[in-house]
Design goal:
Structural class: mainly alpha
Strand content: under 5%
Shape: rod-shaped
Largest sheet: none
Number of domains: 1
Number of helices: 1
Radius of gyration: 21 Å
Order of helices and strands: H
Helix content: over 70%
Length: about 50
């Protein structure tokens, strides 16, 4: 029974870790998209 509980705890921990990584990557992605949009606007302003 203890082994099963340990396995479940490890799975839960891995799931949390994966979720944290996903959230971190999503945040970085959103930041990069924002930077790209800002740069596109900056370039557009220079052209016109």
């Amino acid at each position: 029974m203890a082994i099963t509980s340990q396995r479940e705890a490890l799975k839960a921990n891995e799931s949390i870790s994966t979720t944290e990584q996903k959230n971190r990557l999503q945040s970085k992605f959103d930041g990069n998209v924002k930077k790209i949009r800002e740069l596109q606007l900056e370039v557009a302003e220079r052209i016109y």
